[in-house]
From TrEMBL:
The keyword Transmembrane applies. It is found in: Membrane. Its main location: membrane. It is a multi-pass membrane protein. The keyword Membrane applies. It comes from the Archaea. Keywords: Membrane, Transmembrane, Transmembrane helix. GO terms for cellular component: plasma membrane. This is Cobalt ABC transporter permease.
Length: 289
């Protein structure tokens, strides 16, 4: 239970702005501040297991991005010779690193969003005007964790059934066959349940009339304060972005210096945009403990 209740629409607007800014900003100082704040937010939200799963998925993906981008793209003027006349460019390497950081931030934002806004709250916001779109979005957000859960359940059953035979015939071909069979079971299970869910929704008249909700939210003073902070800080950040603050030029030549002074109104507005939810989660921790 949370003591500070904020309207889910406020959360949705806030996370949407953060995800868009993760695409737009590529300055290392901004990305590092962004990443630190999101890690603090996830720590206060208590979703360390999701963070570990994201890191396991992210590390090989980041290595692929960082390695493949310089090998495939030779755009840039700063050449780094590796073997003989073969070279990579510093610009392509930096672009791959910054792109992988943005990917990590976006993944962590989605994990935090799933913990903050429930499926019922999303239906409350979207289902009245966009019933079909809302159910598609919710099913898409729910799809990957649901498949992970079902795959773990099927894996437990396979381990119990094949425990004796696995000790005797532990070959790579058998492992591949077992994995393929598990995936087939999970996919057929998901398809069957989706058909049942669709029939149940059709039988209950989903989308025919205006949908009612057992949840009820009203905008309060804290929502207006939150939205005001978001809008003002976002407008200042966008103004700075248009003037070149928060984004660096990578191609054709890298233009960045670590000695550059970034402490200006645009950077502080960016921090103000990141900190409200961190503050609220930290406040909840203090109240509970």
């Amino acid at each position: 239970m949370k003591f500070t209740v904020i309207h889910p629409a406020t959360y949705m607007v806030y996370y949407l702005i953060l995800i868009l800014f993760a695409f737009f900003f590529n300055d290392p100082y901004y990305l590092a501040s962004f990443l630190i704040c999101i890690i603090l937010l996830i720590t206060f939200q208590g979703i360390n297991s999701e963070f570990k799963n994201i890191i396991k998925f992210y590390i090989p993906m980041a290595f692929l991005i960082i390695i493949l981008n310089p090998l495939v793209s030779h755009i840039g003027v700063t050449k780094i010779y590796i073997i003989g006349s073969y070279f990579i460019t510093l610009e392509a390497l930096v672009y791959g690193i910054l792109m992988s950081l943005s990917l990590l931030i976006i993944l962590l934002l989605f994990a935090s969003y799933n913990n903050t806004v429930s499926y019922q709250e999303m239906l409350y916001i979207l289902s009245k005007r966009f019933p079909n779109i809302s159910i598609i979005i919710i099913m898409a957000l729910r799809f990957i964790p649901l498949l992970n859960y079902r795959l773990s359940e099927v894996n437990k059953v396979f381990r119990l059934n094949h425990e004796s035979s696995a000790k005797n015939n532990e070959t790579k071909i058998n492992k591949i066959k077992d994995t393929a069979q598990m995936l087939a079971v999970v996919v057929s299970w998901s398809l069957e349940e989706s058909m049942l869910a669709a029939k149940s929704m059709k039988g209950r008249g989903y989308g025919i009339t205006e949908r009612t909700n057992y949840l009820s939210f009203k905008f309060r003073k804290i929502d207006y304060y939150f939205i005001s902070i978001i809008i003002i800080s976002a407008v200042v950040c966008i103004t700075g972005l248009l003037q070149g603050h928060g984004r660096i030029n990578i191609y054709p030549q890298l233009q960045f210096s670590f000695s550059e002074n970034i402490f200006n109104i645009f950077y502080f507005s960016f921090l103000i945009l990141l900190l409200p939810l961190v503050y609220l989660e930290f406040k909840e921790k203090l109240i509970w403990h």
